[in-house]
Amino acid sequence: MICVLISCKPRTVENNGGLIIDLVINDKTVSEKDIATTINILRNRIDYFCYYNPRITLESDKKTIQIKLPLAKDSTLYKEYILAKGKLNILETYENKDIYKCLMSINEKLFRNHNFNFKIPINSLNRIENLPLFRILRPSISWDGNIINGPVIGYSKDTALVNSILKFKEFHEFLPLDSEFKWSKIDNSSFFSLIAIKKPINYKTITSDMVIKSRATKSGSNKYETYFILKPEYCQLWADLTRNNIGKALAITIDNYVFSYPTVTSEIKSGRTTLSSNMTIQQAKALSTTLQYGEIPIEFEIKRIKEIYVP
Fold this sequence. Notes:
With 311 residues, this protein is of the alpha+beta class. Helices cover 24% and strands 28% of the residues. The longest helix is centred in the middle third of the chain and has 17 residues, at 96-112. The radius of gyration is 23 Å and the shape is globular. It starts with 12 loop residues before the first helix and ends with a strand.
């Protein structure tokens, strides 16, 4: 038998192309321990996506973390998933049918008060329509006017204007006291989905600190899901939360966005859970790493993303 050993040089951004990302630490009082924890979390996240000798270093100024990703091309993937702070919560939701009547009341009050000076588009005759909110927030109803089940209450491109209206003090009387609204990531039609969340006043949320282990798995053709195991001391909390929401959606939020909102099909007593909602492989991996490694403890911003091309 002849055994041939071939030595291959490690892939590098300089020789093979890829991405160089510089992160600037904003917190002036951050500890060395928190920086080390951040680098470790980033390394674990990146190892899930980049297989070609990624490098993460703290620069000599102690304020910049540089990431080198050989052969990486999709900078959006890293900005949206890998470099997110990663504050995760699993929250209860309101049903669309419970919020729709609230939106109709807001529409009526907007119309009677000339839109309260909100810059809502008017119709071609320069008149304020009697459903002004729905000019910028497309309600979640079917083509024949039926309210669609689930926690999505509408779709919009102008998220800032919708947020301003829903937070306006004149409309507080119409909305449940424990309600708040968060947007999902943008979908293929360039709209954001608005999800009705219940503020965790009377219950405790599930966070990544409660997770022992998580992984992304394939569930079918181009469909992926995330599996996680809770620490034993939090299994009862999860059992209560799932039992109280059978047939309803729980919103998985990461930072200020709703990442997914799967429907609960049964009480989960074991703490072993599969989250399935037609995720892409990137989404499943991102959720898995956030569950597994938790939130980045420091504040930072992306200073530069440089794409290196090697012919």
